[in-house]
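Service request form, structural biology core

Requester: graduate student, group of Dr. S.
Request type: structure prediction, single chain
Budget code: on file
Notes: please return the result as structure tokens.

Sequence provided:
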Amino acid sequence: MRRCVVIAAVAGMAGCSLIVPGPDDFAYRDGGADAGAGVDAGRIVEAGPGDDAGALDPDAGACGACPAEQPLCGPDGRCVACLSPSDCDDGDHCTTDRCAADGSCASTPVSLCISEVTGGQGVTCAIQAGIAYCWGQGTYGEIGDGLRTRRQLVPTRVPALTSVADIDSHFQHVCAVHGSGRLSCWGYNGNFQAADSANGLEASPVERSDLSGVVQVVTGLEHTCALLDDATVWCWGSNTYGQLGGAAVMRTATPTQVGGVLEVAELASGLNHVCARLRSGGVTCWGTRENGRLGDGGSVSGVAPPVVVQGLSDAARLEAGAQHTCAIRSGGEVVCWGGGLTGALGDGVGGDSSVPVSVLALTGSTPLMGASDLALGAGHSCVRLVDGTVACWGSGEWGENGQSVGLVRPMIVSGLPGIGALGAGGSHSCAVTADGADTLCWGQNSAGQLGSGATSTEPGPIPVAVVDL
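Core staff response, request fulfilled:
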């Protein structure tokens, strides 16, 4: 908004300038003993070169130019971080955010909050108050409790891990960031994706001694990648499809830096491709080109080192399914690319795309807006909207999209309260309630991955509560 000043109508009078930063906030500067006399309050004009030489920068607000960490102008003319609790909302449903009296943001942890849920092929894992729990398929040690069990029907604590900050599973191995940037993995290890060992599987977490400062981990079919606190990306495991970002090896147990991919804010991994959201808002992907899952509009066959996703410069959130990837743009719009034959791209078409396409709104032909979180499975996608509702699309073979049929555009999942976070496995989906107290899952449950204490060979489109968590 441009500001104007009220200029004294009486020639030669010292005058008083009225700065109008907004509809309710006014700041007066004294211009002399008779500053208020004779002011033509009805005449609003723009300040000229000689008018009110002490006036604030017209583009800086009543507080002047505020720094990035204190971007708002308080009623007393000081730059502050917040004016209301909503200004402090960091998107973390496991903290209660507030605006302190001094204009700074503060937060209080929510006790026993479930902060994250993720799913693999038949396994589900979650973090509750810094403790990792897993349930479902355990044939390859995915539960992490030291056993190879066919299935675990209720959440089981992963021992020896505390202060868990991030957890991920995409197929048959699981990795978790814990402590001060340490990383441990367990499960299937056929290509060193879980550990630097000759063991084909690891039934208990194995901590990596060659990585530190890890802030996020993502897993694929037989590879793993980590984002470090210096915003670089390191990958290991199978490189059959170029998942390691151009490394000249077929597989490696040693973390290898992905060249040319710097200033990374977030990672996402599919079965055989990886994508990175940069701090600039751009997205880079590498690995197999099949189905157009690299998003650069190029070939849909072969493999590629990191390439830039076409037409995407404002990504704020990123997630990958088996063969597709979706991003939430800064304005809340969702775009997807890659394999879409199951309807996973949500564009109403039901085909592959090598460039990002907009997900349709619940009705009509406009793009879906108001998204705040994503979860992608083997052939389906889900999004949390700002009102706490969840919409899914894509495959419905097991009810993973919340329906009993496949969808080429989003539809609201019924039976859910307000939701704070999402997760998805191959053919199932999960959601954490907004207060972090409960987790509900739906979809395939043949291995007990819904955590309800039972199994089923029938589709399960109706959300059920995870027990004992």
